[in-house]
Amino acid sequence: MSNIVDKSLFTGEYLIPNTVTGSATESALLAAITIYEKEILIKLLGRSLYDLFIAGLAAGSPLAKWTDLRDGKDMTFTVNGYMVTVHFEGVKKLIVPYVYYYYRRNEATMTGGMFDVSAKAENGTAISPYLKMVNAWNRLIELYGDLPDWWITPDEINSYEHYDDLPTAYNFLLVNKADYTGWKYTPLQHINEFGI
Q1: Which distant-in-sequence residues (6+ apart) come within 8 Å of 143 by Cβ?
Q2: Which residue numbers in the chain have pLDDT < 50?
Q3: Residue 140 phi/psi, 5° resolution?
């Protein structure tokens, strides 16, 4: 199975430099994409829907529901008595900051025999990647869906409700829940630079 995202999407605020073909950086990034793309999609969809999604995309001509989930689509729904129409950008957009966060976390130090170490900058000052990581994580939450833990129970899809009017993956899946049977959503929360 090929991944939904590739190294070409890691630009701008999610820049991972030096990913030329055959480099150690490219190898590490591709490994991170393979691991963390699957991880975030299982958190978003649940294992059974994830398996259906991947199999559906692998089909010769994927159904529209699978390409809509991957690439995005307009959606209309009611929240707090108001009808809203927004554009969901697809899961591709939320995979990138998730992978970026974990890639940067894993590359921030090198593991030695007894402890982790960081590289010493010879002609510069080392700056922690944590602020960029926090920004990436919080952008992920904006695309994923920022729901309080108490809002839903993952095994009770019939209790899911629209919490806000944002173009999140949660709202897209809720609008189209009849198309995505087996959906089990795992809430994620914002983080800050203090780790709380």
Answers
A1: 89, 93, 94, 97, 168, 169
A2: none
A3: -55, -45
Kindly report the number of other CB atoms within 10 A of residue 36's CB atom: 20
> In the prediction, which pLDDT does 129 show?
81
Q: At 49, is the secondary structure helix, strand, or coil?
A: helix
Q: DSSP label at 4?
A: S
The predicted structure's pLDDT at residue 97: 98
Q: pLDDT tens, 129-161? A: 889 999 999 999 999 998 766 666 666 666 778
Distance CA 71, CA 65 (A): 10
CA distances from 55 to 62, 150, 180 (A): 9, 32, 13
Measured CA distances, 135 to 9, 138, 141, 159 (Å): 17, 5, 10, 31
Ordered DSSP codes for 107-159: HSSEE-SSSEE-PPPSSS----SHHHHHHHHHHHHHHH----TTT--TT-GGG
109 φ, ψ (degrees, to nearest 5):
-135, 165
Cβ atoms of residues 190 and 149 within 8 Å = no
- Nearest Cα to 193, choosing from 142, 141, 116, 133? 133
In DSSP terms, 82 is beta-bridged to 79
Per-residue model confidence (pLDDT) at position 112 = 55
Residues whose CB falls within 8 Å of the CB of residue 62, separated by 6 or more in sequence, listed in order: 56
CA 140 to CA 186: how far, in whole Å? 14
